[in-house]
Design brief:
37% helix; Rossmann fold; two-stranded antiparallel sheet; six-stranded parallel β-sheet; binds magnesium ion; 2 domains
């Protein structure tokens, strides 16, 4: 069984790091459910330039430490012990050096995972071919994978909580649910 995981929002809590960075850099409190570019602009919480600065600081690995999504590393290690083949498919890439920061983050956490970095706003379809399961917190990344990956899971986050689930995509709220879904073969 081959399982693919997004990095930001499934393994690493970059959203919380962005909220912290915005508070430290610009003294702005961003409600977590509004912490995405479109909504931040809509509510005029930050300018485009300020949001870019927040992202640079978070994704360059300097300044704000990114915490782990609760128990992500523990469950990854348990699944690996059960011989699931797990890899990461992220939008981070080497062109802006954000991928290197993710690799370093995983190294510090003692995670041995293969990582594919497809690039910002690029499709994950090619990188996800051959996977049985893929997990992402971004519905826009999952929808194009319907038909390519049999089992698609949306990992809940404050920014996707209200999204309607299209057919073929299943929501999991946390790693406990994700783990049980995989172990119980809850694939419909
Ligand atoms: Mg993500």
């Amino acid at each position: 069984m081959k399982i693919g995981l997004d990095f930001d929002g499934v393994i690493a809590d970059s959203l919380a790091a962005k909220v912290t960075a915005a508070r430290e850099m610009f003294a702005v409190s961003i409600p977590p459910d509004l912490c995405e570019r479109k909504l931040i602009m809509q509510h005029q919480l930050l300018t485009e330039e300020q949001y870019d600065e927040v992202n640079r600081r978070v994704f360059s690995g300097r300044g704000v430490a990114i915490e782990e999504i609760h128990q992500a590393c523990l469950y990854i290690q348990i699944l690996q012990a059960h011989r699931y083949n797990i890899r990461v498919v992220t939008s981070r890439s080497n062109s802006d050096r954000t991928l290197a920061c993710a690799l370093e983050w995983l190294r510090v956490k003692n995670q041995t995972l293969k990582v594919s970095g497809v690039g910002y706003k690029k499709s994950k379809v090619d990188a996800c071919r051959g996977l049985d399961v893929f997990v992402d917190d971004d519905l826009e990344k999952l929808v194009p994978l319907v038909g390519t990956v049999n089992h698609l899971l949306l990992f809940s986050s404050p920014t996707n909580r209200d999204h309607e689930m299209p057919s073929g995509i299943h929501r999991v709220d946390n790693w406990w649910e994700l783990y049980n879904y995989i172990r119980e073969g809850g694939f419909r």
